[in-house]
Amino acid sequence: MADATQPEATNGVLPAPDAAGDLVAAITQSETVSADEIALYDRQIRLWGLEAQNRIRNANILLVSIKAFANEIAKNLVLAGIASITLADHESVTEDDLGAQFFVNETDVGKNRAEAAAPEVRKLNPRVDVKVITTNVTSEQSESFYKAFDIIIATDLDFLSFAALDAGARIANRPFYAGATHGMYGYIFADLGTHDFNIERAKSNRPTVKAPESATRSIVDFTDKISSDGKKIELVTKRELYTPLLLVNTSPLDPVMQKDPRKLKKVHPLLTCVRTLWDFQRNGNGILPTHTPADLQLFTTLAMQKHKELKLPPATLTGDFLKSFLANLGSEVSPVTAYLGGQLAQDVINVLGKREQPIQNLMLFDGEECSGPVYALHPIFPDNPIPAMAVVPPPPSDAQVVVL
Fold first, then answer.
1. pTM, to two decimals
2. Locate the THIF-type NAD/FAD binding fold domain: which residues (predicted)?
């Protein structure tokens, strides 16, 4: 979303046939969104409706680790008109940050990354309150800290830091996103706890019933209505259940996929490599493997184990792909960060607006192939598809919010 007044239609959703009339009515009826805001966000209100825009304008977002990926997320959410964004980063701007980031420049080297980015973020949309945290929030355990935000997003952190933030978000019953990019590769992970969303669809001759659609998704409500052109449609409310990152890292692929050799052959090897990287970090081997023979051998051994754990054909994990993944680790490529940042921000907007099915639950991106497969990873057991998980957050920290 490059401009707050010029959003693009996504996921095939187009403005309602009588969007102009609805907009005029909304101006007279709205007690929350002002007329000048309706004018400013005119096209996106036409796209996803006034009710969704009102939820967006009241949203407070926490964004942790302000690198290139986070730059793209912040840009899209601020232009969409959220209430506030809190940038959290305890590290300083380095010369490496100047390659793919656009909120910092040479004069910011040595400054705190969040403080350096905040003034530029604020310029995008003065209506959005931009706050800064300059301490490490990954060890924050206060429930009230997480409850202050509507959605928590973390980017380019190690597995244990992601898991710690996910645990805090779960305790506070807040949606959580994690994502990272490594050169031409990247991923988005979503743990929304329990999330309800609405879809509109043509009324079918087959009756809609309140029942499970999959191990994680159920229809919980539906109502019939007539569209402006006289067609019968229905508004369906669905509920998705999510799994925390700690369990996703060891969860199997969908049982239906496991029974189909053709589908298993199509599973992208990036899934194995991402889970291998998470294990490498979780086991205390470092943030990224070095290019020493010992680290390369360890990563290769772990990758073969993870590939086998997923019951994938050995031939689909090639030495060439492993070499490419390892060579890309730790680098930032602007087109990749832009694409994934836009995808994550759009998913956040959909979640806030309670519209369209969100990512469930791991999206990968291979920039070499321009492919973005999504895999649902859950610890599925009989009669208890998504088991409840009691998570204990790590030791507390002294995170402080600083308003610039």
1. 0.84
2. 41-368
